[in-house]
Amino acid sequence: MANVTLRNVRKTYAGGFEAIKGIDFEVGDGQFCVLVGPSGCGKSTLLRMVAGLETITGGEIDIGGRVVNQIEPADRDIAMVFQNYALYPHMSVYNNMAYGLRNRGMAEAEIKTRVEEAARILELGAMLDRKPRQLSGGQRQRVAMGRAIVRQPKVFLFDEPLSNLDAKLRIAMRVEIRKLQRRLSTTSIYVTHDQLEAMTLADILVVMNGGQVEQIGNPLEIYQKPATTFVASFIGAPPMNLMPLRSDELKSQLTGDIRASAAGILGIRPEDFVISNERGAGGVALGLTVEAIERVGAETFVYGTRQKEEQGVAATPGELPPGEIIVRIPGAVGPAIGERIRVVAAGDKLHLFTADGRKRVG
Amino acid sequence: MEKSTVFNNRLLPYLLLLPQLVITVVFFYWPASQAIWQSFLREDAFGLVSEFVGLENYQALFAQPEYYRSMLTTVIFSTLVAALSLSIALLFATQADKNLKAAPAYKTLMIWPYAVAPAVAGVLWFFMFQPSLGMLSRPLRGMGLDWNPLLNENHAMILVVMAAVWKQISYNFLFFLAGLQAIPRSVLEAGAIDGARPLRRFWTITFPLLSPTTFFLLVVNIVYVFFDTFGIIDAVTGGGPAGATTTMVYKVYADGRLGGDLGGSAAQSVILMIIVIALTAIQFRYVERKVQY
Amino acid sequence: MVEHRPFTDFIAYAILTLGVFIVAFPVYLALIASTHDAATVVGGHMPASPGSQTLENYYRAVFVGGSRTSREPVANMLINSFVSAIGIALGKIFISILSAYAVVYFRFPFRKTAFWIIFITLMLPVEVRIYPTYKVVADLKMLDTYAGLILPLIASATGTLLFRQFFMTVPDELLEASRIDGAGPFRFFWDTLLPLSITTIAALFVIQFIYGWNQYLWPLLITTKDSMQTIVIGIKKMLVTSDELAEWQLAMATAVLAMLPPVAVVIFMQRLFVRGLVQTEK
């Protein structure tokens, strides 16, 4: 059981490339922290620095009150679950879990107790004698988890552990990981590029981009109040609609404080639109031509183009073509393709960012 | 390609490298540099006195008609062996690549001569074509041919080529078959739908797609003919008759051992080294483009 | 595929059968010759079917040796061949797996240099440096010893390249997981890398066993005593006297015995053999 604290952590490669540009955050004892971001944002590198698999070129990483910068991975009291599981292919399931304990000189009797306990929790009891290649993807994943929990470490590190599973299994394992972590209440750091996984697992969510932290906080808070346009479009699917406040059509509708920052970017989530002709006080109304419709049963996504729109905002990822707006409406009934509709959003559902997208203003 | 995670020990990697480096230096670099050094020396008949003579050994070598002859012999020998063993092996491999029930059994039956030592292969072929008792010499004589590889230079060359080809077919067969099996069926099926008949399909689709394998085998075969056929030549003809089957490698051996001309032999070694390095360099220039087996 | 007709299949079978015949014929003749008495073989009218002298020929070849040529019995040569072939194969595996481990899993000054020093040896077959190597071995007092037969032949880059190539395919995460599990370089090598390399080791062993068994020029030079001869050299020396007088039936029996171990290895370990051949020649 331990806190993990990162203080101005940096990683610069020999070639001068700055992979991690100074990161600070703290994961409290027993908390589940998720690092999320697009590929290449540095999240895996950061996790591997916590594990001791990458050197730290600046700042400090502190696990349980001890700075671990110069400590070997084996001595950091961490356990890691790898994306490809990294099971020892020539060892049985039992030996895969027992290996780390044997290397630490633990008595065989104690090893047996621990491995069997882990196998019971993970329902691997019948498979202890099998080799990894005889297991299904989900079972391998559980062995990788088992190898981590038998160690009873201070911290669990997960490097995209679910990305090699199919969609259905991924959801099942996601729930299992969360239950397991609650039960063991071991501090955990989890890396993923999947925002849904991030939202559902995290106590603390760290959104990363380009080697920097974009926003840290409770997942719902981040969803409701994204700090930057990057976070706004990365968290939530489909992404938030972002519109530059250049056209008079939009500007004229805004009132009060929001109107003052006239050069910013306006964001509205797809589900915050309603198809209606009635614009509420402080709200925004848009005229759209319907281009495409996706009906997924419980809800319907309407893709429309704004009339008289000049230019969109460059926002990666999940970026929409300039002028395109997504609207999410409940149920399966919606407008027809080619139809002209009017959508409105209430005043308290508007997000406003500075023109460079780096700061939230309202 | 490099590992991203490594160990940090300082001394250990050197200890791990030590056995191989010691053996390599003692048995490779030291003798190779000795060969280069010796090629500039002349020793007296007893090996007691040696003097530095510069390029004299090389000059003497290139003044020798025998040396040019050994070069020519090597070229003829290499060309014949490489061309014959490659084309015969390709013929067999294309047949074995057909979807036959017995293809795996044929594969096994084709590849085992790889394991026969070149010298033993030479002995087997010599036994068949030995002028007085060879099983196959009699029919040749019956046809009015005065077959005698011990005396006739062309006959000797033919015999050595046959033994060398026989030994090399299995190797070429194996690689051609692997190369053929790596060609996606769908490409050939597309060719068939485009109206190409089997033979045309072979020359317009299969053969071009096989060219990396062919090129690789060509280089390997030339190196094989240069060095590994030593045993065959020594067992069958001993370089004779009258030097007709003395290749460059055989001459290095013969001049150094029988003639005792170590300086001249060393100069020949150096020239051979240059040829091998050139061949290997060619091979590695193309190795990147080569199909992965 | 498309044109899968009885006729094309028949042609293919015919060509392949011809191929097998060409490949097998010289060996078949050797087998036949090894079952007849000397007079039948030398007379030049040897029948195409086995004779009655099989046991006697092989017994004489293995335990007695030829009478006219007064050579060593083959039993002793077989032992020499086995010792040197296995020595070459194991020696090569031992030094090359260690050097490949160093080159792949460590970073140290002169790493690239060390790799190139080993790599360049690919280009220098023993034949081109034969006399200087002979002199080194002679100076080290290793003529007529197993060390002299083995050591100069194990120094080559093929094994190192093969293991390097295999190690590169081992996922990095296995090393990372091992380090987190508390394994150092020795443990990782012994517990993880070596067990994973078993197939590669076996394939290399098969190829190098055949290579070592079939050596000719090198043993010819450095063995002066008959008691140190390998079987491949032995056959040649049986014939060197004067071919008419040579005891061909014994020479052919010896040839059969010389082919047997490596050919058996190829046939019974075909998968490993093919794998080893394809990988070492890359």
UniProtKB/TrEMBL annotation, chain A:
Question: Which InterPro entries does the protein's record reference?
Answer: AAA+_ATPase, ABC_transporter-like_ATP-bd, ABC_transporter-like_CS, ABC_transpr_MalK-like, ABC_transpr_MalK/UgpC-like, Mo/tungstate-bd_C_term_dom, NA-bd_OB-fold, P-loop_NTPase
The organism's place on the tree of life at top rank:
Bacteria
Q: Which UniProt keywords apply?
A: ATP-binding, Cell inner membrane, Cell membrane, Membrane, Nucleotide-binding, Sugar transport, Translocase, Transport
The ABC transporter domain extends over 4-235
Q: Does the keyword Iron-sulfur apply?
A: no
The membrane topology term of the UniProt record is: Peripheral membrane protein
- A Gene Ontology biological process term: glycerophosphodiester transmembrane transport
Q: Which residues cross the membrane?
A: none
Q: Does the keyword GTP-binding apply?
A: no
Q: Which CDD domains does the protein's record reference?
A: ABC_MalK_N
Location in or out of the cell:
Cell inner membrane
Gene Ontology MF terms: ABC-type transporter activity; ATP binding; ATP hydrolysis activity
Of the GO CC terms on this record, one is:
ATP-binding cassette (ABC) transporter complex, substrate-binding subunit-containing
Q: Which family does it belong to?
A: Belongs to the ABC transporter superfamily.
What does this protein do, in the record's words?
A: Involved in beta-(1-->2)glucan export. Transmembrane domains (TMD) form a pore in the inner membrane and the ATP-binding domain (NBD) is responsible for energy generation.
This protein is called: sn-glycerol-3-phosphate import ATP-binding protein UgpC
Q: Which organism is it from?
A: Bradyrhizobium archetypum
TrEMBL record, chain B:
Q: Which Pfam families match?
A: BPD_transp_1
Is Transmembrane among the key words of this record? yes
Q: Give the keywords, sorted.
A: Cell inner membrane, Cell membrane, Membrane, Transmembrane, Transmembrane helix, Transport
Q: How does it sit in the membrane?
A: Multi-pass membrane protein
- Cellular component GO terms, alphabetically? plasma membrane
Which residues belong to any copy of the ABC transmembrane type-1 domain?
71-283
Q: Which residues cross the membrane?
A: 12-32, 71-93, 114-136, 156-180, 201-227, 266-287
Query: Known InterPro entries for this protein?
Result: MetI-like (IPR000515), MetI-like_sf (IPR035906), UgpAE/MalFG_permease (IPR050809)
Q: Which family does it belong to?
A: Belongs to the binding-protein-dependent transport system permease family.
Q: What's its job?
A: Part of the ABC transporter complex UgpBAEC involved in sn-glycerol-3-phosphate (G3P) import. Probably responsible for the translocation of the substrate across the membrane.
Q: What is this protein called?
A: sn-glycerol-3-phosphate transport system permease protein UgpA
The upper taxonomy is: Bacteria, Pseudomonadati, Pseudomonadota, Alphaproteobacteria, Hyphomicrobiales
The gene it comes from is ugpA
TrEMBL record, chain C:
- Domain ABC transmembrane type-1, residue spans: 78-269
| Pfam families the record matches | BPD_transp_1
Q: Does the keyword Kinase apply?
A: no
InterPro entries linked to this entry: MetI-like (IPR000515), MetI-like_sf (IPR035906)
The subcellular location is: Cell inner membrane; Cell membrane
Would you say which domain of life the source belongs to?
A: Bacteria
Q: Which NCBIfam families match?
A: PRK10973.1 (NF008210)
Family matches, as Gene3D superfamilies? MetI-like (1.10.3720.10)
Indicate how the chain sits in the lipid bilayer: Multi-pass membrane protein
Segments crossing the lipid bilayer: 12-33, 82-106, 113-134, 146-167, 188-211, 248-269
Q: What binding partners and quaternary form does the record give?
A: The complex is composed of two ATP-binding proteins (UgpC), two transmembrane proteins (UgpA and UgpE) and a solute-binding protein (UgpB).
Q: Which organism is it from?
A: Bradyrhizobium archetypum
PANTHER family given for it? ABC TRANSPORTER PERMEASE PROTEIN MG189-RELATED-RELATED, SN-GLYCEROL-3-PHOSPHATE TRANSPORT SYSTEM PERMEASE PROTEIN UGPE
Its job = Part of the ABC transporter complex UgpBAEC involved in sn-glycerol-3-phosphate (G3P) import. Probably responsible for the translocation of the substrate across the membrane.
Q: Which GO terms describe its cellular component?
A: plasma membrane
Q: Which PROSITE patterns match?
A: ABC_TM1
Record carries keyword Cell inner membrane = yes
Can you cite a GO biological process for this protein?
A: transmembrane transport
Keyword field: Cell inner membrane, Cell membrane, Membrane, Transmembrane, Transmembrane helix, Transport
Q: Which family does it belong to?
A: Belongs to the binding-protein-dependent transport system permease family.
The entry's protein name is: sn-glycerol-3-phosphate transport system permease protein UgpE
